[in-house]
Amino acid sequence: MIAIINYGMGNLRSVQKALERLGHDARVIDEPREVAGADRLILPGVGAFKDAMANLRDQGWVGPVLEFVESGRPFLGICLGLQLLFDESEEDGQHEGLGVIGGRIVRFRPTDRALKVPHMGWNTLEWSGDEALYRGLTGPVYTYFVHSYYAEPTDASVVATVTDYDGPFCSSIHRENVYATQFHPEKSQRVGLTLLENFATL
Predict the structure, then answer these.
(1) How many Å apart are CA 1 and CA 4, to the nearest integer?
(2) Which one of 61, 92, 123, 138 is separated from 31 by 20 to 30 angstroms, measured CA to CA?
């Protein structure tokens, strides 16, 4: 069973529907105790980092999520769900994240005035090496983004893909059983469905 965390900060149903379309058992879970019964876990997210972390803490998700990550079972963060994995974010001040991945979340500050913030729409991914999440895809491929902040990992080896927006930025990560994308696979048509299928069959 693929569990999708409902902590009040994500477009959960679109992720669930995409996985169901692929034939997988995907369930939105509302209680932290339900994490233990999941084979795979997805942390989606849309909105502000500070509010998302407050919801995770107040609703009791932090412990179960960290325990799941430590268990070695496949974990996927989507958009804000990627950012929450890091040590801290500069969005609306300095705020502590889950600390699963070393590094921080910073705001786009493009030098090219033609580039707007948020970074919104279709952009390319580029990667090298054998990334399980991108199996069956040949780069560069296009995925859908909506974000004003991006990750700066401390360890460059966790960067799975890069995307260019006034320079290269980390658009997805992978470390052991932890995967996360800054883009929205559920909005990225064929490419996104391939990615979700790969996650569901890891």
Answers:
(1) 10
(2) 92
What six digits make up the tokens of 57? 């803490």
Known catalytic residues?
79, 184, 186
Report how far residue 4's alpha carbon sits from residue 20's, in angstroms, rounded to the nearest whole number: 12
Q: Which residue has the higher pLDDT, 184 or 138?
A: 184
The whole model's pTM is what?
0.96
- Residues 106-138: pLDDT tens digits? 999 999 888 999 999 999 999 877 789 999 998
Where along the chain do its domains lie?
2-200
- CATH code given to domain 2-200: 3.40.50.880
pLDDT band at 98 (very low <50, low <70, confident <90, very high): very high
**Coil, helix or strand for 75?**
strand
Structure tokens at 106: 């910073």
CB 125 within 8 A of CB 165: no
Helix (H, G, I), strand (E, B) or coil at 42: strand
Closest CA to 3 of 81, 58, 57: 81
Beta-bridge partner residues of 171 = none
